[in-house]
Amino acid sequence: MHITVDAVLFDLDGTLADSTGSVDRSWSLLADRLGLDFGSLQGMYHGVPARQTLARLMPDASAAEVEEVNTWLGDIEASDFDGVVPIPGALAVLSVLPRDRWAIVTSGTRRLATGRIAAAGLPMPGELITADDVAVGKPDPAPYVLAAKRLGFESKRCLVVEDAPAGVASGLASGAMVLGLRTTHSDLGVPSVADLTEVEMRVDGTRIGVCLRSR
Q: Is residue 13 among the annotated active site residues?
């Protein structure tokens, strides 16, 4: 991959921040609450807003019951930032990008996202799109379309960086180019790298050049 784009739209968990321990601990507690095997949830909750996943796990529950569990889970997640660290290469990549040329697009809430960004020591983006900002989250294209719009660009002229199938689907549906990180899934169906140490970004005037380093 050697491309030029107007802006870069990053997912958060598994892309810029490694929050695996926190995520698994929270969803393990959820599995206990719902009487489910935690192993059966693997792969279901990555990259998708919790409310959407809960609706699938609780098909017979009312909207109010789903919302009650969603609020409970949100409180648990937002109180556990232990072990959240930056993905290798994340700080280096972000350090070269102007603040008005990149955004974070996450399926978490704003409260959760800002907590994890701070815990990982990442810079706060100029634009942060969360589950609170869209009616339908990933894999719908709405989150990435909104992020590009807020930055002042068309999504088709942006690069989406993702680690989960739902996020990749969202980025592709928005018309953006998509780069995958193999931090949580080994096969994303798009050009992929192990982590951000294999990605080089350079700003040339009004464009951002992106190329992949070989190890």
A: yes
